[in-house]
Amino acid sequence: MKKKSRKSLFSVALSAVLLASSVTPVWADDAGSPPAILLSIANPIGSIALTSQSKLNIQEVNLLTGEELNTVSFTAELVNGSDRDMQFVDYWIRLNSGTGAVIDVQLQAQDKDKNKVAAGTSQQFHFYAKVSKATALADLKFQVIKWDFDAPNFERVVGEIAVPDSYSLQTPSDSKRSVLLSGVPITTYVKRVNVSKNDINSLPTVSFMMVNSGSRSIKLPDLQFTVETADGLSYPMNVSGLTKDTVLQPLEDKEGILTAIIPQEAGLEGWKLSVKQTIEGGASDGTALVVPVAEYDLPQAKADDVSLGAVYEFSNKHGIYTASMTGLHRLPWEDEDLLTANVIIANQGTESLPIPDFTGYFELDDATKVEAVAVNTDKVISLNPGSELQLQLIGKIPFTTQFKRVKLLLQENETVDTLSGSAASSTDKPVKVDLVQFYHNSDLLQVGLIPNGAKRKLTAIGRQADYSVRSVMTFTGKSSDIYAAQLAVENLEKRHTDIAKLVAHFRAADGTVYPAQVTELSEKVRPGATGLLYVWSSVPKSYATEGLQLLIGDAVKDGKLAEKDPDGYVNAASFVLPAEQKEPKASFKELEIAPYTISMSNFGTQLNFVTGEVELKFEYELTHNLLMETNMDNQKLIVEMEDTRGKFKMSHYLDLETGKDESKVLDLGFHQMKLIKADENLKFNVEDMEKYRLNVYHEFQSGQKKLLATKDLYWFMYND
């Protein structure tokens, strides 16, 4: 039942799971106690006798789905029961698909130096292979061979094992699963699941338990958790309590809280929890390797039929309003953290209402008061009947602050006659009137992750837009690199609109935050068009950017959207970033420096023996996406040619469409470009000149560039 009052305080008790709503957990069993059934991931699918006293176990067979290819991982355990050493190098494992095709198997880098298996001991060797999307575990057959110089092809088949049709590593919701992490057995299970929802998304929270069943401590590796839907859609989960390098002592158990945001269209049936591990340098070529750990059936979810943020009334001298809190987040800001609350203020009456002069404060653990600034980012000056506005309140705390509960008190600044105590003119003393009080739990302060390829919709009145990450790229320099994300902002309004100034950070899996800069547009964006922003930060040359997330928000200052020097940000969103396309193209067709695309062809060179000038000619076609606006300041195309034997090198910096030097400007349409460099000594080396390497770079800033395409071409001939 709704309640209303002019100046009284409203206490709105919010549960630990959902703001302003009560959510009934979906337990893994009736009481939430640990499951009784223990399944082992290490049980071999079969064994092959190598000698009368030794064998090879094939175990831990698992399949990880990928974008283009799947990854099969398995462990071969050589058990030496003899009285002499054995050499694993005498054997090899061949993997065959259901069609009989041989699949290339790689030994993980961690085992590349293993070989000798002492008498009376066993040794494990971990393998992986890339397979097609259509390959299932039941299609696989393992063949063990022994190198034998007396046999055809110098190999002799020792035995074969096919993966049984009934084989599955899916963990039922009423079972535990024992997994090996860094050689230590870890008992894992889903303790409980609860799901709530708002008008758009389902919001699962999974309690995931890990128990060290071994005899030594372990630092948890880099684990990733995702929710997989019945249709194969994958949604990353935020993790607390089970992050990388968390120490787990023998017999110690730790509970991880996993949260995700899943569109309601994905449904609630058939969810499973997938756990993967990233092994840095684990692949045979030294790159990172992602391998599956285990999968778990999640109990059938049933979301409570309530909206995120129950509605409560308050009133002032102008009329009756409603308020609902739809989010509360803790965000990084320089050497502090921001507490930001999203509150929807609505007019459900029949008359227009003015917007109150809001203020408020946060209170941590009923002890520490944190003043808040109210920010109205909607372009409205009043509330018409049936309309609403989005209000944000921002407070700052030291980033080291720890707390369990947080309270938000929404207030209104009202002027009061100091003599009579009644509401009076604006010249009288202002007072703060309590309106609504909300409670929240610190465990739920994370910003939900937006999956790779998905969009974040901004619904603020007058600034409606879709935000999405288009691509990421690394521009290399001499002492440091620039890591950049292309952020596309589509204008959903019916008028030309400025894109609000953004505050951005890159956030690593371990919680480390890297402030980022954002390019700004000088022009407004047309309706239906897209503004392309570069969000970038300088990083060390050795820094691994995989796993970074992009956190953005609208810049504010003094309670308003800021054009410069912000003191905070609101409407935060966190994006999962796509994998970077690091390999350059082997052709010069369709090279993109958004919003431009260039194709280059018919490269030819000639040498003027009199002047010593080397001339590079080529044809090009430059197009411009007219529905995309960006800031091209300092960005250039670099054409570089270098003789493969080091006899000559030249580089030219070209502007796109406009530039100071017209001879170095690439114009829209189909044209020819001529680049020249004088080298009087080159004519003496003509006989040694066969090929040159042509490189095309995208320069983002002076000295920071990314190789787009490269190819070896012949001197003094026309090449493509």
Could you characterize what this model shows?
With 720 residues, the chain is mainly beta. It has five domains: 148 residues, Immunoglobulin-like, CATH 2.60.40; 144 residues, Immunoglobulin-like (Sandwich), CATH 2.60.40; 117 residues, Immunoglobulin-like; 128 residues, Immunoglobulin-like (Sandwich), CATH 2.60.40; 124 residues, Sandwich (Immunoglobulin-like). The protein has no helices and 57 strands. Strands 38, 39, 40, 41, 42, 43, 44, 45, 46, 47 and 51 form an eleven-stranded mixed beta sheet that branches. Strand 16 and strand 17 form a beta hairpin. The chain is flat, with a radius of gyration of 31 Å. The N terminus is likely disordered.
Summarize the structure.
It contains no helices and 57 strands. It has 720 residues and is mostly beta strands.
Sheet bearing the most strands, described?
A: 11 strands, mixed
Number of E-state strands: 57
Mean pLDDT: 85
Provide the β-strand percentage band.
over 45%
Helix and strand composition category? mainly beta
In DSSP terms, counting alpha (H) and pi (I) runs of 4 or more, how many helices? Answer: 0
